[in-house]
Amino acid sequence: MEAQTYTFPVSFAQQRLLFLDRLEPGSPFYNVPLAISIKGDLNVAALENTFAEIVSRHEALRTTFSIDETGPVQVIAKSLTLEMPVVDLTSLPEPESEALRLAREEAEQPFNLNQGPLVRARLLKIGPEAYVLLFTIHHIVSDGWSMGVLFRELGEIYEAFAQHHPSPLSELPIQYADYAVWQREWLTGEVLQEQTDYWKTKLAGAPPTLELPTDRPRPAIQQFHGAKQVSHLSQELTERLKQISLDERVTLFMTLLAAFKVLLWRYTYQDDIVIGSPIANRTRAETEGLIGFFVNTLVLRTNLSADPSFRDLLKRVKEAALGAYNHQDVPFEKLVEELRPDRDPSRNPLFQVSFALQNATRTKLELPGLTLSPMEVHSGTTKFDLSLSIL
Fold first, then answer.
1. Whole-angstrom Cα distance, residue 371 to residue 389?
2. CA 28/CA 226 separation, integer angstroms
3. 299: closest CA among 327, 324, 271, 322?
4. Which of 125, 192, 234, 254 sits in a 20 to 30 Å window from 248, CA-based?
5. What distance in Å separates the CA atoms of residue 388 and residue 353, rounded to the nearest whole number?
6. pLDDT tens, 218-258?
7. Residues 202 and 331 in one domain
8. Same domain for 153 and 233?
């Protein structure tokens, strides 16, 4: 007998990812992979039951996608059993190396948005009290904030279950599908008109591309292949950047963005620079504890003509950022629909470079009696020509 399901409209953000999935089926570029080293006396049954409880709490984790007579819809299963297979690697000569290989393989394994589930968990045993937890989720049902929610709930529920206590968490007031329905009902008429009028004015005449110098020809259709480079800023430099921001009455985000735009100008010699920047988009208290795809992308345009001083450039960046924050309710997907830029399958519309500063409090996964540490895993993909993320 088939599991009972319910259908709801998709959010605007989900609609765009469904479109991209049809353009590039079977691609892992919207996978969100995690690999966590665990040392200690892990209660495997409690961990598996914890995942099951979280899937039961959050409808987004039981969601797949389909198309009916109204268009794309969320299909939410009333229940879903998330299995967490345990793979014993201890008989191998180098279990840690095999765990890393499996972590990369897992990160590159695509999801089927129509069939699901859109979340996977696997536990690799590499020693007597040593494990690697692999957890992968598709971006269409999660975002960076969601990972903080997931970590917090994992810690609280696991601690209770390991002691044979019930979950300490209260029932969620709403679910992601409620937000999607509200978004589509609210973002219409005068609300939508006022927001989109701002963006039409702000982005009028903006250059369609930022021509970064590359050492390979651009493919006719985006392939989304990419790599990751990690660098570290010293504590001294970080404190100096914070002081500059304080002196100029701007946020650290604005100072870093201004510096990044100077760098992009030096690479491209374009005075009119447009980049994209993610924003949490959790503007209502009811959404703060939900796992789901809320994040929105703001388009930030700055003109660097007339050789401005860095102080003057900061003022321009501040003005652009504040205007964008005040008009952040238009989903990027809706903005593209309203502005109708010339579509080029080899490039992202409106911007090709992204900038993010993760300045919210980051939730660290902690399980009682265990030592946990993240492992670097990359899916080998990228969403944009260039992305700078500062943590």
1. 27
2. 12
3. 324
4. 234
5. 8
6. 888 887 788 888 899 999 999 999 999 999 999 999 999 99
7. yes
8. no
